[in-house]
Amino acid sequence: MTLLTIEEAARFLRLSKRTLYLRKEIPRVREGHRILFLKEDLEAWILAHREVGGSPASMVIGIGLVDAPRRTVYHRSPALRTKVVR
User: What are the domain boundaries of the chain?
Assistant: First the structure.
């Protein structure tokens, strides 16, 4: 069991401290006025909330890397209303 401070958890998750304070769904432990994070809980939370196919660790099935289908995104601004493929 590894306890992390708010600074260590922010560095581990690559989020700001403010984001960690605001996002209540991120698992945490309160000790008085201090907020601590269990590294194991954070790792489990990351695995449960990751986007499949959104990064180099997309999906590995047997032989190799399988890419997720590309999404077509349209911008809200009329000036940038061209079709963007991610």
Answer: 3-85
Classified as helix, coil or strand, 4 is strand
pTM of the model: 0.56
pLDDT of residue 51: 72
Separation CA 38–CA 28 (nearest Å): 7
CB-facing half-sphere around the CA of 30: CA atoms within 13 A? 4
Torsion sign across C-alpha atoms 6, 30, 2, 45: negative
In angstroms, the CA 69 to CA 9 distance is 32
Per-residue pLDDT of 34-68, as tens digits, reads 999 999 999 999 998 887 655 444 444 434 344 55
- Asked if 60 and 23 touch (Cβ cutoff 8 Å), the reply is no
- The CA distance from 2 to 6, in Å, is 13
